[in-house]
Amino acid sequence: PKGTTSMTHSQAVRSVQDLKGLNIKPSFRALSPNGHFRNFWDFLGVVFLVLDAVILPLQFVINDFYQQMSVFFVISQVQVFYWCFDLILSFFTGYLHKGDLVSNPRAIACRYLRTWFLPDVVVTTIDITLEATQG
């Protein structure tokens, strides 16, 4: 095709070797666990947990709870989005280890998978299932 160039295997290998010599750092920047955004995000999560502590018991007592109080239905939809996004965001949030910020993407992912990933997935899956059956 017009405007394309072909490269031999040896030329490609040399190009890769040339790039390795440039010592290019990956562009990944982990979120600070103590940064303004993460503090706001975690505060929002606490607010949603408090709302759940109030709303869940009411759902068992009041028939057609969401029909009577539609604002809580909307809040519950926002919460599901929040927890799904939080699950993803956790893979991009650094953590402190012995006072040092760990921002290596692989270390962050491994630590999250070993600690809070399974409980987060279970609870988020339950939330999604409940929302799907209520709506």
Task: List the secondary-structure elements in sequence, H or E.
Answer: HHHHEEHH
Question: Largest beta sheet: what is the strand line-up?
Answer: 1-2
Work out the helix count: 6
Q: Average pLDDT value?
A: 87
The residue ranges in which pLDDT falls below 50 over 5 or more consecutive positions are: none
Number of strands: 2
How does the major sheet shape up? 2 strands, antiparallel
What is the CA-CA span between the terminal residues?
A: 52 Å
Taken from the alpha-carbon principal axes, the silhouette is elongated
Helix and strand arrangement:
Layout: H1 9-21, H2 36-61, H3 65-68, H4 70-89, E1 95-97, E2 100-102, H5 105-114, H6 117-134
Antiparallel strand pairs: 1-2
Overview of this structure, please?
The protein has 135 residues and is mainly alpha-helical. It has helices at residues 9-21, 36-61, 65-68, 70-89, 105-114, 117-134, and strands at residues 95-97, 100-102. It has a two-stranded antiparallel sheet with strand order 1-2. Helix 2 packs across helix 4 and helix 4 runs antiparallel to helix 6. The longest helix has 26 residues, at 36-61. The termini are far apart. The mean pLDDT is 87.
